Amino acid sequence: MRWWQSWKGTAKRDADLERELLSDLELEEEEQRERGLSAEEARSAARRAFGNTTLIREQTRAAWSRVWLEQLVRDVKYGTRTLLRSPEFAVVSVLVMALGIGATTALFTMVRAVLLRPLPFHDSGKLVMLYEHYRQNKGGDGFNAVAPGDYRDWRSQTHGFEDMAAMRGYGGIFSGVHSELPEVAQSAGGSANLFPLLGVAPAFGRLFTEAEDQPKGEPVVLLTWSLFQRRFAGDPGIIGKQIHLDTIPTTVIGVLPSWFTYPDARIQYWMPYAQTFSESDYGIHDGHQSEVVARLKPDVSVEAATHEVSAVQYRIHLANASKPVAEEVWSRPMIDDLVRGVRTQLLVLLCAVGCMLLIACLNLSNLLVARAAAHRKEVAIRGSLGGSRLTLIREQMTESLLICVAGGGLGLLLSLASTHWLAANWRNLPRADSVHVDGWVFTFAAGLVVITGLLAGLVPAISSTGKGLLTALQESSRSSGSLSGSASRARLRKTMLTVEIALTVMLLVSAGLLFKSFMRLRMADLGCRIDHVMTIKFGLPEIQYDTRDKVMLFHQSLLERVRRLPGVRGAALASAAPGSGPQGDRVFTILERPAPSYSLQYDAMTLTADPQYFSVMQIPLLRGRVFTEHERLDNAHYVIVSKQFVDQFFPGDDPIGKHVRSGWDADVENYEIIGEVGDTVYDVTKPVEATMYFPILSGIPNRTSEATIVAWTSVDPLAMSTPIQQQISALEPELPVYNALTMDQILGKTTASQGFAANLIMAFAALSLFLAAVGMYGVLSYLVTQRVSEIGIRIALGAQREQILCLILFDGLRPALLGLILGLTASAGATQLIRSMLYGTEPSDPAVIGAVILTLLLIALIACIFPAWRASRLDPMQALRTE
Amino acid sequence: MTKKQVQQRGNLLQGTLDMLVLRTLLYGPAHGHQIGKHIQRTTNDFLQMQHGSLYPALHRLEERGWVTSKWETAPDRNREFKYYRLTEIGRKQLVVEESQWKQMAEAVARVMWPAVEES
Description:
The complex is a heterodimer of chains A (883) and B (119). Chain A has 883 residues and is an alpha+beta fold. Chain B has a single domain, classed as Orthogonal Bundle (Arc Repressor Mutant, subunit A), CATH 1.10.10.10. Chain B has helices at 3-14, 17-25, 32-42, 51-64, 88-112, 114-118, and strands at residues 30-31, 67-73, 80-86. Chain B has a 3-stranded antiparallel beta sheet. In chain B, helix 2 packs across helix 3. The longest helix of chain B is centred in the C-terminal third of the chain and has 25 residues, at 88-112. In chain B, 28% of the residues are buried. The chains are: A alpha+beta (883), B alpha+beta (119).
């Protein structure tokens, strides 16, 4: 408001000065009249005595201290006027800057929210996650989930950490107290000290007690805010009441605050950690599923504390030599742990938009140099008349700053919209709910505006007001265009163009590689039928389905019902469809070849399947046979293994008839290998894993009660989803189903995140390519205008049109080629950064690099051909007469 | 008077105009025209008052708080003029400027007429 007042003050003072001058002028006039002059003569005499009143006003105004403000207003006015004189240029450059600044700001918002902002927990910098680490690393990143027995020993036997708590992902069926409205929900188990450790207080009610955190503890549940709002309309009256979890009556003891969405916003409720285990499982050291979070003591380093835990783990390892128990413990900060999956993607995207912004800046700078060249003479004249260089630079900078301010404003709006969209559409983005625009983001955007404005404006301003004022004046009618001033400017523009192209090439190569990875993923071979397959998952509650017969009967009846449905060509049951994520591992030995020690104990992914699964899913049978209809219930000591399994454990040997010893059922027993089938993958981005298939029709309650029905349909598979669900509810009305997905959707789900990043980078690269093309066109057009008279002379002296065409074309293509070489060199380094995001391709992929080179050359050729063609069409007479 | 001469006088005036205006106002409040006329008359028309310098000077002085201004009706005419009045700070400033000018003039005099100083 102050600014407004001072502006108003200025207006008032202006009027005051006007009145003062007028009254004094009249007085002078009267005095002249008193001397006997006529009215007419008196007026002109008075005016003569006063001189130029406008000048007086200007000079008086200069005495007021608000000069700088007026100067600013004048600069802005001047800049706006210059810009409005060529609205196309103004609109295009504002849009370009808006895109650049908007995209960069949006990505910065994401990076800040996800990577930089501390976790919302009490003193979150002191929180670390502990993982088990096998010295003989079996792939992955070396951070392995923790066994409940290990966690309990760590907690009771070490003192390096203030405290440590455990949690694990879980799932279950949530329903009302009368089993109404059952829903399959993602849940988690958390130890009693987890929430106090994190510093989370319940919004209503209380947290778990140590007494409840026991395998046979009183069944209690903490609701997350979203479930509390959704199912109970935010009514705290639910506390103390009962609901059903997996049909077990459970008391609601509290509600977690709305901001607590860790580790995943989809988690609906929390159970006591120990209650997610059976009594016998709570102490095991060889079942790994938990995550351990620990708080550092103020005076103990993370290395020392972790080392102590590691020592305890090594003792556990020695005590359980025959089991898969890790030797060491690794730790990493909680925030790194949470964002590990997206860190590279986010940073790569930020780099990509940064590159795009730089390209936009260089482009703007380039265009401004051309415009500055147009008022070269004006600037030269003002400079020689004493206009200070600073004033001239300031005036020129105002233009670029104006463009950037307008672009920045527009960009900020753009980023507000796109940030929201990005956070909502980025699958599996951790902390997505914390993405919002705050003061820092505004500061960042403002900083970008200033930096880009200076960057884009400084080079043209300095180059056009610098040396060679005289040269500019001398370059009058007979300029040959190759005088020092314009030649150096042309060199400057070519240099900027080269940098621009180099950056574009870098972006294009990275985008091309990511895109190729994505395409590879989409076309990846899951190893089974993809088309026309519907999958639906369900889990039989173990309370009602507590015997082999009951489970097997349900599976059998469901298969019969679904197979009878019109539109279904085949149906089968398995524990999980291919591509639907990692399934459990199981250790085993081979009866015919006993392993001497644990370190040679084998480990393979475990699935279950019914006899028809392999034919329905078109998984090829390579050797032996599949299960028969008689191999069910107790007669089920058979196993089918995958090709990878045979390659790994029976290299060059026939596995059929051999026996796998495994504790798949309650005790360790022998299972005869009856067949070998082709490999399928659980995640297209991951390598194939050795797999064992056990018969699902064995009906062992907690091994086969969770199943996925796969149906090969003759019609649109999605249309079969409801009929299949109806068959399930006909058998068990209260049984909910989940993950009703076609195989196409499963494939899309695992590749969505990569696809998203690849598409974004591709878009940025395409925009950058477009900008570079505009830049190239602009520079070459400028060069041609500069050389009009030279070309005219050449043509007049007999140069062929083709020669002129080649001359100009080569002039334009040289910076393009140079930029291409520079860019390829630079991208060799840049692509190393995205190596971890690549799949099925290498940073030096010749196809991608070749495509980039071709695209760039093609675009360069198109951008250059028009100015070159125009130059070759010049009429020499007209060319020589110009200027 | 040629244009060149006017310019030279103008230059001469630049450093001292503030002081002359303040000194004029010592007689009492006056409006711009009166101040200009007074300086011109007192110097026997040697210092032709340039309005282009006078008004900026007046506003500069006001900006610095050495004078204040007010629209008042002139005693001899039935019209309002903008009267400038010396403030306390202005009075002190006048003393400062006067002593500075004196030092300056003496210094110049010593260089220009050394004989005078000797006697």
